[in-house]
Amino acid sequence: MDSKIVITCACTGAETTKDQNPALPTTPEEIADAAYEAWLAGASILHLHVRDQNGKPTQDVQVFRRTIELIRQKCNMVVEISTGGAVGDTADERLRPLVELEPEMASLDCGTVNFGDDYIVNTLPVMRRFAEEFRGHGVQPTLECFDLGHIYASRILIKEGLLTPPFHYGLVMNVPGAVPYTAENLEVFKKALPEGAYFTVMGIGKSSLPAQYGAIATNGWMRVGFEDNVYFAKGVLAKSNAELVERAATLAKIAGLSIATSDDVRSILDLRG
């Protein structure tokens, strides 16, 4: 994998709205179409949030199920569901789709963090419970870390035997109230990771493009999509998630990297498939 890079597309998220970008996919059909277009452009993983009929974030299992079914009709993209949910969701609500659907991958938040004027709570007991559910259902976690301390919290779970290799981290940077994206901060995060861990760099808002360069420079993976950033350039809305994926793939190829397929991801992270 040294010559390959993995691109994740987070096409919807829980907080982005159509007012911010009218092209935001929110229905199962729109999300499936966006996932397929992103897959064709080079994304091998879809980070999946879903919305209800009013466009509001939901952890409804049936909406997740329907969306995944539609994606599966179009392509073999790895689907990573969110167990972070939206601000205010309970642990039970966040876990339900993982328990009932047993996806190949899912996100596991590794600590409490400011989220703009709100906050997301993940205590160590909550993290232990989530890790046990991931292990019991055979789901590969992406260990999402919004601050440096989250990486060290994840290492507690590793020491306790609740997490086992291969480890995949999602380094989420530039969330308002959390750690900003800088090349120096990314390097500090990388040095704190367990030896041999894979990591995806996620730059929120205006840091999205610099974070893609940072991922290439540090041998990491990239995430793009409307969950993280709705703009293609300053003041210019992206036409689609696929447009953002295509640019990320182009940058990787210019750097001499090839784009990992979904089956490459299944192999390296030992997914069920």
Write up this protein:
With 273 residues, the protein is of the alpha/beta class. The chain has a single domain, classed as Alpha-Beta Barrel (TIM Barrel), CATH 3.20.20.70. It contains 9 helices and 16 strands. α1 packs across α2, α1 packs parallel to α8 and α3 packs parallel to α4. The longest helix is centred in the first third of the chain and has 14 residues. The protein is globular. The relative contact order is 0.18.
Topology summary:
Layout: E1 4-5, E2 7-9, H1 28-41, E3 45-48, E4 50-51, E5 57-58, H2 61-74, E6 78-81, H3 91-101, E7 105-109, E8 113-115, E9 118-120, H4 124-136, E10 140-145, H5 148-159, E11 168-173, H6 183-192, E12 198-203, H7 208-217, E13 221-224, E14 231-233, E15 236-237, H8 241-254, E16 258-259, H9 262-268
Parallel strand pairs: 1-16, 2-3, 2-13, 3-6, 6-7, 7-10, 10-11, 11-12, 12-13
Antiparallel strand pairs: 4-5, 8-9, 14-15
Give the overall pLDDT as a whole number.
Answer: 96
Quote the distance from N terminus to C terminus. Answer: 19 Å
Rg for CA atoms = 17 Å
Shape: globular
CATH class category label:
Alpha Beta
Q: Name the CATH architecture.
A: Alpha-Beta Barrel
- Main β sheet profile: 8 strands, parallel, barrel
- Give the helix proportion (percent range): 25-40%
The helix/strand order is EEHEEEHEHEEEHEHEHEHEEEHEH
Could you tell me the strand content as a percent range? 15-25%
Structural class: alpha/beta
Q: Name the strands of the widest sheet in spatial order.
A: 2-3-6-7-10-11-12-13
